[in-house]
Protein backbone atom coordinates (compact mmCIF):
# COMPACT_ATOMS: atom_id res chain seq x y z
CA UNK A 1 0.00 0.00 0.00
CA UNK A 2 1.45 3.41 -0.93
CA UNK A 3 2.35 5.72 1.92
CA UNK A 4 -0.12 8.51 2.58
CA UNK A 5 0.85 11.82 1.06
CA UNK A 6 -0.87 15.10 0.38
CA UNK A 7 -0.94 17.61 -2.44
CA UNK A 8 -3.23 20.37 -3.60
CA UNK A 9 -4.85 21.83 -6.69
CA UNK A 10 -6.51 25.19 -7.20
CA UNK A 11 -10.22 24.84 -7.96
CA UNK A 12 -10.35 28.11 -9.84
CA UNK A 13 -12.72 29.76 -7.35
CA UNK A 14 -10.17 30.73 -4.73
CA UNK A 15 -10.40 27.46 -2.80
CA UNK A 16 -7.57 24.95 -2.56
CA UNK A 17 -8.40 21.35 -3.25
CA UNK A 18 -6.40 18.89 -1.16
CA UNK A 19 -5.58 15.37 -2.33
CA UNK A 20 -3.92 12.45 -0.55
CA UNK A 21 -3.84 8.65 -0.68
CA UNK A 22 -6.58 6.77 1.18
CA UNK A 23 -6.12 3.73 3.40
CA UNK A 24 -9.18 1.49 3.14
CA UNK A 25 -10.20 -1.63 5.04
CA UNK A 26 -9.74 -4.93 3.24
CA UNK A 27 -12.32 -7.73 3.51
CA UNK A 28 -11.21 -11.31 2.80
CA UNK A 29 -14.21 -13.27 1.52
CA UNK A 30 -12.42 -16.55 2.20
CA UNK A 31 -11.91 -15.77 5.89
CA UNK A 32 -13.58 -18.06 8.43
CA UNK A 33 -13.66 -15.20 10.96
CA UNK A 34 -17.01 -13.76 9.91
CA UNK A 35 -17.20 -11.44 12.91
CA UNK A 36 -13.93 -9.77 11.93
CA UNK A 37 -15.17 -9.37 8.36
CA UNK A 38 -18.41 -7.82 9.61
CA UNK A 39 -16.51 -5.48 11.92
CA UNK A 40 -14.11 -4.30 9.20
CA UNK A 41 -16.93 -3.83 6.70
CA UNK A 42 -19.16 -1.97 9.16
CA UNK A 43 -16.34 0.41 10.07
CA UNK A 44 -15.73 1.10 6.38
CA UNK A 45 -19.43 1.69 5.69
CA UNK A 46 -19.73 4.13 8.58
CA UNK A 47 -16.53 5.92 7.59
CA UNK A 48 -16.63 6.29 3.81
CA UNK A 49 -18.54 3.44 2.15
CA UNK A 50 -15.44 2.22 0.29
CA UNK A 51 -13.36 -0.90 0.97
CA UNK A 52 -11.33 -3.59 -0.77
CA UNK A 53 -12.46 -7.20 -1.23
CA UNK A 54 -9.99 -10.01 -1.86
CA UNK A 55 -10.36 -13.77 -2.46
CA UNK A 56 -13.69 -13.09 -4.16
CA UNK A 57 -13.68 -16.22 -6.32
CA UNK A 58 -12.53 -14.71 -9.64
CA UNK A 59 -9.02 -15.73 -10.64
CA UNK A 60 -6.41 -13.18 -11.72
CA UNK A 61 -6.00 -15.13 -14.97
CA UNK A 62 -9.66 -14.72 -15.84
CA UNK A 63 -9.62 -11.04 -14.82
CA UNK A 64 -6.73 -10.52 -17.26
CA UNK A 65 -8.79 -12.18 -19.98
CA UNK A 66 -11.71 -9.84 -19.30
CA UNK A 67 -9.45 -6.79 -19.46
CA UNK A 68 -7.87 -8.06 -22.68
CA UNK A 69 -11.30 -8.50 -24.26
CA UNK A 70 -12.32 -5.04 -23.08
CA UNK A 71 -9.25 -3.50 -24.74
CA UNK A 72 -10.03 -5.40 -27.96
CA UNK A 73 -13.41 -3.69 -28.11
CA UNK A 74 -12.22 -0.17 -27.35
CA UNK A 75 -9.47 -0.36 -29.98
CA UNK A 76 -12.08 -0.89 -32.71
CA UNK A 77 -12.68 2.06 -35.05
CA UNK A 78 -15.28 4.50 -33.72
CA UNK A 79 -17.53 3.71 -36.69
CA UNK A 80 -17.69 0.06 -35.57
CA UNK A 81 -18.34 0.98 -31.95
CA UNK A 82 -21.13 3.38 -32.89
CA UNK A 83 -22.96 0.50 -34.60
CA UNK A 84 -23.37 -0.84 -31.04
CA UNK A 85 -24.57 2.46 -29.53
CA UNK A 86 -26.48 2.04 -26.26
CA UNK A 87 -30.23 1.71 -26.52
CA UNK A 88 -33.06 2.89 -24.28
CA UNK A 89 -32.43 -0.13 -22.03
CA UNK A 90 -28.87 1.08 -21.40
CA UNK A 91 -27.19 -1.77 -23.24
CA UNK A 92 -24.26 -1.18 -25.56
CA UNK A 93 -21.64 1.47 -26.29
CA UNK A 94 -21.43 4.89 -24.62
CA UNK A 95 -19.18 7.30 -26.53
CA UNK A 96 -16.78 9.88 -25.18
CA UNK A 97 -18.69 12.72 -23.41
CA UNK A 98 -21.96 10.71 -23.39
CA UNK A 99 -22.24 10.89 -19.60
CA UNK A 100 -22.29 14.10 -17.53
CA UNK A 101 -22.01 13.23 -13.85
CA UNK A 102 -21.19 16.60 -12.29
CA UNK A 103 -22.85 19.38 -14.31
CA UNK A 104 -22.17 22.02 -11.66
CA UNK A 105 -18.41 21.63 -12.00
CA UNK A 106 -17.85 20.15 -15.46
CA UNK A 107 -17.56 23.10 -17.80
CA UNK A 108 -17.21 20.84 -20.82
CA UNK A 109 -20.02 18.65 -22.09
CA UNK A 110 -19.29 15.37 -20.34
CA UNK A 111 -16.91 12.74 -18.97
CA UNK A 112 -13.71 11.98 -20.87
CA UNK A 113 -14.38 8.24 -20.98
CA UNK A 114 -16.15 5.71 -23.16
CA UNK A 115 -17.97 2.64 -21.92
CA UNK A 116 -20.02 -0.44 -22.70
CA UNK A 117 -23.11 -1.60 -20.76
CA UNK A 118 -23.98 -5.31 -20.37
CA UNK A 119 -27.02 -6.25 -18.27
CA UNK A 120 -28.93 -9.37 -17.29
CA UNK A 121 -29.79 -11.14 -20.56
CA UNK A 122 -33.58 -11.30 -21.05
CA UNK A 123 -34.97 -12.50 -24.43
CA UNK A 124 -36.96 -9.89 -26.31
CA UNK A 125 -40.10 -12.12 -26.29
CA UNK A 126 -40.00 -12.51 -22.49
CA UNK A 127 -42.63 -10.29 -20.74
CA UNK A 128 -39.88 -9.24 -18.31
CA UNK A 129 -38.12 -7.52 -21.22
CA UNK A 130 -40.78 -4.79 -21.09
CA UNK A 131 -39.32 -3.54 -17.82
CA UNK A 132 -36.64 -0.81 -17.70
CA UNK A 133 -33.06 -2.14 -17.74
CA UNK A 134 -34.23 -5.62 -18.82
CA UNK A 135 -34.00 -7.05 -22.32
CA UNK A 136 -31.46 -8.57 -24.70
CA UNK A 137 -27.93 -7.23 -24.64
CA UNK A 138 -26.19 -5.59 -27.58
CA UNK A 139 -23.29 -7.79 -28.68
CA UNK A 140 -20.44 -7.38 -31.17
CA UNK A 141 -20.57 -9.98 -33.93
CA UNK A 142 -18.34 -13.03 -33.55
CA UNK A 143 -16.46 -12.27 -36.75
CA UNK A 144 -15.27 -8.97 -35.23
CA UNK A 145 -14.69 -10.11 -31.62
CA UNK A 146 -14.77 -13.92 -31.35
CA UNK A 147 -15.24 -15.18 -27.80
CA UNK A 148 -16.08 -11.71 -26.49
CA UNK A 149 -19.67 -12.44 -25.51
CA UNK A 150 -18.79 -15.71 -23.77
CA UNK A 151 -16.13 -13.98 -21.66
CA UNK A 152 -18.43 -11.13 -20.62
CA UNK A 153 -21.36 -13.41 -19.78
CA UNK A 154 -19.11 -15.59 -17.65
CA UNK A 155 -17.73 -12.55 -15.84
CA UNK A 156 -21.23 -11.18 -15.26
CA UNK A 157 -22.23 -14.41 -13.49
CA UNK A 158 -19.07 -14.61 -11.39
CA UNK A 159 -19.27 -10.96 -10.32
CA UNK A 160 -22.89 -11.42 -9.23
CA UNK A 161 -21.89 -14.29 -6.95
CA UNK A 162 -19.14 -12.15 -5.44
CA UNK A 163 -21.62 -9.29 -4.95
CA UNK A 164 -24.05 -11.59 -3.16
CA UNK A 165 -21.27 -12.67 -0.80
CA UNK A 166 -20.50 -9.03 0.01
CA UNK A 167 -24.21 -8.27 0.50
CA UNK A 168 -24.47 -11.04 3.11
CA UNK A 169 -21.76 -9.39 5.20
CA UNK A 170 -23.49 -6.03 4.76
CA UNK A 171 -26.74 -7.58 6.04
CA UNK A 172 -24.98 -8.77 9.20
CA UNK A 173 -23.38 -5.33 9.63
CA UNK A 174 -26.90 -3.84 9.58
CA UNK A 175 -28.12 -6.35 12.22
CA UNK A 176 -30.25 -8.16 9.64
CA UNK A 177 -30.48 -11.85 8.78
CA UNK A 178 -27.54 -12.96 6.64
CA UNK A 179 -29.84 -13.81 3.68
CA UNK A 180 -31.78 -10.51 3.79
CA UNK A 181 -30.52 -9.39 0.36
CA UNK A 182 -30.86 -12.88 -1.17
CA UNK A 183 -34.66 -12.57 -1.43
CA UNK A 184 -36.19 -12.81 -4.94
CA UNK A 185 -37.27 -9.16 -4.89
CA UNK A 186 -33.71 -8.12 -4.10
CA UNK A 187 -30.61 -9.92 -5.40
CA UNK A 188 -32.53 -13.04 -6.31
CA UNK A 189 -33.62 -11.24 -9.50
CA UNK A 190 -31.39 -8.18 -9.59
CA UNK A 191 -30.75 -5.38 -12.03
CA UNK A 192 -27.03 -6.15 -12.32
CA UNK A 193 -25.05 -4.18 -14.88
CA UNK A 194 -21.50 -4.75 -16.05
CA UNK A 195 -19.84 -1.68 -17.50
CA UNK A 196 -16.52 -1.70 -19.28
CA UNK A 197 -14.74 1.67 -19.12
CA UNK A 198 -11.87 3.22 -21.05
CA UNK A 199 -10.17 6.53 -20.29
CA UNK A 200 -8.20 7.55 -23.35
CA UNK A 201 -5.25 9.37 -21.86
CA UNK A 202 -6.69 12.88 -21.51
CA UNK A 203 -5.27 14.97 -18.67
CA UNK A 204 -7.91 16.10 -16.19
CA UNK A 205 -7.90 19.59 -14.74
CA UNK A 206 -10.38 20.21 -11.89
CA UNK A 207 -9.62 23.94 -11.95
CA UNK A 208 -11.25 24.24 -15.38
CA UNK A 209 -13.84 21.47 -15.01
CA UNK A 210 -12.21 18.66 -17.02
CA UNK A 211 -12.60 15.17 -15.51
CA UNK A 212 -12.28 11.57 -16.60
CA UNK A 213 -15.46 11.04 -14.60
CA UNK A 214 -17.12 13.87 -12.70
CA UNK A 215 -17.85 13.70 -8.99
CA UNK A 216 -20.85 11.50 -8.23
CA UNK A 217 -22.21 8.80 -5.97
CA UNK A 218 -23.43 5.50 -7.42
CA UNK A 219 -27.14 4.85 -7.67
CA UNK A 220 -27.79 1.35 -6.41
CA UNK A 221 -26.86 -1.13 -3.70
CA UNK A 222 -23.13 -1.78 -4.21
CA UNK A 223 -20.52 -1.47 -6.96
CA UNK A 224 -17.62 -3.86 -7.53
CA UNK A 225 -14.79 -2.15 -9.39
CA UNK A 226 -11.79 -3.86 -10.98
CA UNK A 227 -9.05 -1.60 -12.34
CA UNK A 228 -5.73 -1.79 -14.08
CA UNK A 229 -2.66 -0.41 -12.28
CA UNK A 230 -3.14 3.21 -13.36
CA UNK A 231 -4.06 5.55 -10.49
CA UNK A 232 -7.13 7.69 -11.14
CA UNK A 233 -10.02 7.00 -8.74
CA UNK A 234 -10.53 9.55 -5.94
CA UNK A 235 -13.03 9.70 -3.08
CA UNK A 236 -14.26 12.60 -0.94
CA UNK A 237 -15.35 11.43 2.49
CA UNK A 238 -16.93 14.77 3.44
CA UNK A 239 -18.65 16.48 0.52
CA UNK A 240 -19.54 19.51 2.66
CA UNK A 241 -15.95 20.22 3.76
CA UNK A 242 -14.41 23.53 2.70
CA UNK A 243 -12.14 22.81 0.95
CA UNK A 244 -13.03 19.31 -0.13
CA UNK A 245 -10.34 16.71 0.51
CA UNK A 246 -9.96 14.17 -2.29
CA UNK A 247 -8.11 10.92 -1.62
CA UNK A 248 -6.69 8.61 -4.28
CA UNK A 249 -7.73 4.96 -3.97
CA UNK A 250 -4.74 2.86 -5.09
CA UNK A 251 -5.51 -0.28 -7.11
CA UNK A 252 -4.58 -3.60 -5.48
CA UNK A 253 -3.85 -6.47 -7.85
CA UNK A 254 -6.58 -9.11 -7.67
CA UNK A 255 -8.87 -7.03 -5.43
CA UNK A 256 -12.21 -5.37 -6.02
CA UNK A 257 -12.72 -1.82 -4.85
CA UNK A 258 -16.27 -1.93 -3.44
CA UNK A 259 -18.45 1.08 -2.71
CA UNK A 260 -21.97 1.58 -1.44
CA UNK A 261 -24.64 3.20 -3.58
CA UNK A 262 -27.38 5.71 -2.81
CA UNK A 263 -30.04 3.00 -2.40
CA UNK A 264 -28.14 1.45 0.47
CA UNK A 265 -27.71 4.88 2.03
CA UNK A 266 -31.50 5.33 1.82
CA UNK A 267 -32.11 1.83 3.18
CA UNK A 268 -29.79 2.48 6.13
CA UNK A 269 -31.25 5.94 6.83
CA UNK A 270 -27.84 7.52 6.06
CA UNK A 271 -26.05 5.40 8.69
CA UNK A 272 -23.99 3.81 5.91
CA UNK A 273 -22.39 6.21 3.42
CA UNK A 274 -22.64 6.54 -0.33
CA UNK A 275 -19.57 8.65 -0.98
CA UNK A 276 -18.66 11.08 -3.73
CA UNK A 277 -16.00 9.79 -6.09
CA UNK A 278 -14.48 10.81 -9.41
CA UNK A 279 -11.71 9.90 -11.85
CA UNK A 280 -8.81 12.14 -12.83
CA UNK A 281 -6.84 11.39 -15.96
CA UNK A 282 -3.06 11.84 -15.85
CA UNK A 283 -2.20 11.34 -19.51
CA UNK A 284 -2.13 7.53 -19.34
CA UNK A 285 -4.76 5.24 -20.80
CA UNK A 286 -6.78 3.61 -18.03
CA UNK A 287 -9.18 0.66 -18.11
CA UNK A 288 -11.65 -0.33 -15.41
CA UNK A 289 -14.60 -2.69 -15.08
CA UNK A 290 -17.53 -1.63 -12.90
CA UNK A 291 -20.26 -4.02 -11.79
CA UNK A 292 -23.34 -2.20 -10.51
CA UNK A 293 -25.70 -4.25 -8.35
CA UNK A 294 -29.29 -3.17 -7.69
CA UNK A 295 -32.35 -5.05 -6.44
CA UNK A 296 -35.24 -6.08 -8.70
CA UNK A 297 -37.49 -3.56 -10.42
CA UNK A 298 -40.36 -3.91 -7.96
CA UNK A 299 -38.27 -3.84 -4.79
CA UNK A 300 -39.49 -1.11 -2.45
CA UNK A 301 -36.52 0.73 -0.99
CA UNK A 302 -37.55 1.97 2.44
CA UNK A 303 -35.85 2.51 5.77
CA UNK A 304 -34.72 -0.75 7.36
CA UNK A 305 -36.26 -1.58 10.75
CA UNK A 306 -32.79 -1.72 12.33
CA UNK A 307 -31.96 1.80 11.14
CA UNK A 308 -34.82 3.86 12.53
CA UNK A 309 -36.15 4.90 15.93
CA UNK A 310 -38.24 7.64 17.49
CA UNK A 311 -35.09 9.74 17.72
CA UNK A 312 -34.02 8.85 14.18
CA UNK A 313 -37.13 8.58 11.97
CA UNK A 314 -36.85 7.70 8.23
CA UNK A 315 -35.25 10.48 6.19
CA UNK A 316 -36.57 9.36 2.78
CA UNK A 317 -39.98 8.22 1.50
CA UNK A 318 -40.21 4.67 0.10
CA UNK A 319 -39.50 4.36 -3.62
CA UNK A 320 -39.46 1.48 -6.11
CA UNK A 321 -36.07 0.58 -7.47
CA UNK A 322 -36.99 0.89 -11.18
CA UNK A 323 -38.44 4.39 -10.76
CA UNK A 324 -35.39 5.59 -8.86
CA UNK A 325 -32.84 4.16 -11.31
CA UNK A 326 -34.69 5.38 -14.39
CA UNK A 327 -34.63 8.97 -13.17
CA UNK A 328 -30.95 8.84 -12.20
CA UNK A 329 -29.90 7.48 -15.61
CA UNK A 330 -32.05 10.06 -17.39
CA UNK A 331 -30.41 12.86 -15.42
CA UNK A 332 -26.84 11.84 -16.30
CA UNK A 333 -26.87 10.48 -19.87
CA UNK A 334 -27.21 12.24 -23.21
CA UNK A 335 -30.55 11.98 -25.00
CA UNK A 336 -30.35 9.25 -27.65
CA UNK A 337 -32.17 11.58 -30.04
CA UNK A 338 -28.96 13.62 -30.27
CA UNK A 339 -27.11 10.70 -31.86
CA UNK A 340 -29.96 10.05 -34.28
CA UNK A 341 -29.93 13.70 -35.31
CA UNK A 342 -26.17 13.52 -36.03
CA UNK A 343 -26.74 10.61 -38.42
CA UNK A 344 -29.39 12.40 -40.50
From TrEMBL:
Keyword Oxidoreductase tagged: yes
Record carries keyword Iron: yes
Family that this chain belongs to: Belongs to the iron/ascorbate-dependent oxidoreductase family.
Keywords for the protein's UniProt record, in alphabetical order: Iron, Metal-binding, Oxidoreductase
Name of the protein in its database record: 2-oxoglutarate-Fe(II) type oxidoreductase hxnY-like isoform X1
Transmembrane segments: none
Gene: LOC116197193
Gene Ontology MF, one: dioxygenase activity
Record-annotated Fe2OG dioxygenase domain positions: 190-295
Top-level taxon of the source organism: Eukaryota
Amino acid sequence: MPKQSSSGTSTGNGAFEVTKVSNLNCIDLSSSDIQRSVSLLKQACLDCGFFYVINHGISEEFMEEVFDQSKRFFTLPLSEKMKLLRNEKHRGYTPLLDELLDPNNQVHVGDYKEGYYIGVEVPVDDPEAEKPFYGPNVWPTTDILPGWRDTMEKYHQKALEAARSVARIIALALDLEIDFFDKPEMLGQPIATLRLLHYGGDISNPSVGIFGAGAHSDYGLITLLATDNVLGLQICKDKDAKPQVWEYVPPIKGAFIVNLGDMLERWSNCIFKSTLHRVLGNGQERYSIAYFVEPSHDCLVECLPTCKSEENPPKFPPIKCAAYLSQRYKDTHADLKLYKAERT
